[in-house]
Amino acid sequence: MSSPSVTHYPRMIKLKDGSEVLVRFMEQGDRDRLLEFFRGFPEEERDLLREDITRPEAIDTRVRALGRGRLVSLITEAEGRIVGDATLQRRPMNWLRHVAEVHVVVDRGYRRVGLAYRLLYELFDLAREEGIETLLAEMMSDQGAAINLFERLGFKREAVFRKLVKDLHGRKHDLVIMTRDLTERGKRRPSWLW
């Protein structure tokens, strides 16, 4: 990915409850703080993530992807700690050059106040800036709240693969594939976003 417009970040955003958080690009120096953020999630939630992001090697892989320009990562901070992480990752294959995969993880204390919703809209804008036409999201069918959020934002279920993925304990789950066409402008932002 080319370098997204740095004029957008860092900046403060207001959430539905009136609180404010800082949104900025991830930097190499965020490694230890990101590890702390991910390690703060209960095991049953970490189990639903596609990889064990509590391992330093996983964060190191992200830092390398940043350096290669294949990943854009937004960090959200409140009271000096990371409370949200949102990534936009381009697929390296030529036939998927117009597609990027999105991931959003939010601290329990910042759920239901619109942070994940707001971060996804931030990723929409960054993706459009990069010429991305389609966003892709993959999640386990057990992640009902996430699936509902993505559907409210215009993502459509494209496929469900039965018992295809395994959680960190080796249990099989259904994989849900969702996409969002960014060339369609039908979805309006809620007024509280701005």
Q: Main sheet?
A: 8 strands, mixed
- Portion of residues within helices: 25-40%
Q: Could you list the spans in which at least 5 consecutive residues all have pLDDT below 50?
A: none
Provide the succession of SSEs: EEHHHEEEHEHEE
CATH class type of the domain at 6-133: Alpha Beta
Overall pLDDT level: 88
First-last Cα distance: 27 Å
Q: What's the SSE blueprint?
A:
Layout: E1 11-14, E2 20-25, H1 31-39, H2 43-46, H3 56-67, E3 71-78, E4 81-90, E5 99-106, H4 115-129, E6 134-140, H5 144-152, E7 156-166, E8 172-181
Parallel strand pairs: 5-6
Antiparallel strand pairs: 1-2, 2-3, 3-4, 4-5, 6-8, 7-8
Helix pairs in contact: 1-3
Overview of the structural elements:
This protein is an alpha+beta fold and 194 residues long. It has a domain of 128 residues: Gcn5-related N-acetyltransferase (GNAT) (Aminopeptidase). The chain has five helices and eight strands. The protein has an eight-stranded mixed β-sheet with strand order 1-2-3-4-5-6-8-7, with helices on both faces. β1 and β2 form a beta hairpin. α1 packs across α3. The longest helix has 15 residues. The protein is globular and about 40 Å long. The relative contact order is 0.14.
